Amino acid sequence: MTFLDFNFNEQLTEGLLSMGYKTPTAIQQIAIPVVMEGKDIIACAQTGTGKTASYLLPVLNLLGPHPKHQISALVLAPTRELAQQIDQQVEGLAYFTEISSQAVFGGGDGSAYEQQKRGITNKVDILIATPGRLISFLSSGSLKLNHLQYLILDEADRMLDMGFYEDIMRIISYLPAKRQTLMFSATMPPRIRTLAKSILHNPEQVNIAISQPASGINQQIYKTHDSQKTKLLTMLLNSGTYTSIIVFASTKEKVKGLYKELKAAKLKVNAFHSDITQHEREEILLEFKNKQLPIIIGTDALSRGIDVEGIDLVVNYDVPGDPEDYIHRIGRTARAATTGTAITFVNERDQRKFKNIQQLIEREIDEVPLPPEVGEAPQFKPDADGQKRRNRGGNNKRPGGGGNSGGANSGGQRKSNNNRPRGNRPNNNNKPNNNTDKPNPGTTN
Ligand code: AMP
After folding, report:
1. pLDDT tens digits along 1-30
2. Cβ 53 under 6 angstroms from ligand 1
3. Is 229 in the pocket of ligand 1 (CB under 6 A)?
4. Exposed, middle or buried, 275 (CB in 10 Å: 0-12/13-18/19+)?
5. Ligand 1: distance of its center to the CA of 174 in Å?
6. Which of 140, 164, 6, 4 has its CA nearest to residue 79?
7. Which of 65, 97, 262, 342 has its CB 3.0 to 4.6 Å from that of 330, i.e. a possible disulfide?
């Protein structure tokens, strides 16, 4: 199957081909025809599967190359980073059409609010928003969505985790009842099904089971004592083998501590966690995307949705508690059919968590011996954690991560999604030129 089979309009086809898209991914093959038929959809798919284009492409095609310049589609996303990335994909895909988009999200200062407000009154076709900021525009009366035809909820599970349920329901109360609604979620817990029941009309269900890590990722582990981790990490970072690196730690306190230690070791590094300002977040991500900053340390907040090409190393300083987070984290490397390395430090306490990961990905990960300078690797007792559980007389069920649908590969064939299309875009851009915080799509994405 190729994108030509969807019969998209010429301008949209030109845009997606210029983005380097050749073959639709699994979710695109299934979701696009359903959306084009005008049906509601509930899709279980994660970042990295091509899910964004699976709703953007049909909606862009339905809007046509010469849209009415009134807000016809609304995409709700949990975070400003994701909202900005979606906006960039719209800009790339719709480059040869007259469709215009605007992202609105919280954080930033009063001037960012004013800029966004001006942006949305300026003939926008697709609005991409985080729920909190959108509510403030709607309730102040500065935004009306009477002409909306398409509502998309992206990463719906995460929006609920972040406490946006009430906001979502309030936003929906401002929308026309007659609309097409598309809901995407990485997981399908009961509350997502409940939300789906209340806002979708006779939806088609699409399931792309959890994707396995891309085959281009070279996965390794080191067994370490906690006291050896920072020395080992510093050696890896100083080895000169890797140029664009993400290090994940389990808590923001750990991220902050590690940041200080790596700074003291004269490494060019920055930390990404919930205590830094919106402006700082954007600066850090922009520098990282533009390859001015080689190392970023963060919590799992970084593991979803950060779509940066060319990351060649992901380090799990701690084993993630949820096996699916492992897949999200290491999926930051080897994107778009490149290769990368994912290294996990496993201490004795984390053995069980690590076994759950191996079960989920259905393979054993190679252990690399510790460099002698770091010291002796710990000798783990076989299944020490399981032994402790039995001694406590506790329930010996496999914790977390079980019951997962695992196995099926997303089949997402991702090729280089390189640059914004080259060529002449019709001069339709009504958007105020306020997107100084956007990464240069020529070097990133
Ligand atoms: P997503 O799952 O939406 O976060 O997409 C992951 C990455 O894959 C993004 O950089 C997209 O631009 C890219 N992508 C999506 N669909 C395709 C496709 N059919 N071919 C090549 N790249 C794609």
Report:
1. 899 999 999 999 999 999 999 999 889 999
2. yes
3. no
4. exposed
5. 31
6. 164
7. 342
pLDDT over threshold 90, residue 169: yes
Give me the pLDDT at residue 434, please: 33
299-324 confidence digits (pLDDT tens): 877 765 566 778 889 999 999 987 87
Q: What is the largest CA-CA distance in the chain?
A: 71
Which domains does the chain possess? Answer: 3-210+414-430 (3.40.50.300), 217-391 (3.40.50.300)
Residue identifier of the C-alpha nearest atom 1 of ligand 1: 50
pLDDT band at 387 (very low <50, low <70, confident <90, very high): very low
Are 311 and 217 in contact by the 8 Å Cβ rule? The answer is no
Question: Rounded CA gap, 307 and 82, in Å?
Answer: 9
Distance 380 CA to ligand 1 centre (A): 41
Distance 45 CA to ligand 1 centre (A): 12
CA of 265 to the centre of ligand 1 (A): 37
Q: Is-contact 67 125, C-beta < 8 A?
A: yes
Mean pLDDT of 405-432: 34
Specify the residue with its C-alpha closest to ligand 1, atom 14.
50
pLDDT at 179 over 70: yes
For residue 47, the ligand 1 atom closest to its alpha carbon is: 2
How far is 256 from 272, CA to CA, in rounded Å? 9
Instruction: Kindly state if the Cβ of 219 falls inside 6 Å of ligand 1.
Output: no
Q: By C-alpha distance, which of 89, 435, 161 is closest to 282?
A: 435
Residue 304 CB less than 6 A away from ligand 1 = no
pLDDT at 109: 74
- Which residues, in sequence order, are CB contacts of 186 under 8 Å at separation 6+? 44, 45, 46, 47, 155, 157, 158, 304, 324
Least confident of 82-86, 103-107, 109-113, 287-291: 109-113
Instruction: Tell me 201's DSSP state.
Output: S
Which amino acid is located at 254 in the chain? K
In this structure, the number of other CB atoms found within 10 A of the CB of residue 260 comes to 11
CB 321 within 8 A of CB 400: yes
Give the DSSP per-residue string, 298-358. Answer: E-GGGTSS---TT--EEEESS--SSHHHHHHHHTTSS-TT--EEEEEEE-GGGHHHHHHHH
What's the pLDDT score for residue 265?
Answer: 93
Of all atoms in ligand 1, which is nearest to the CA of residue 21?
A: 20
- Cβ–ligand 1 contact at 21 (below 6 Å): yes
Cα separation, 328 vs 320, in Å, equals 10
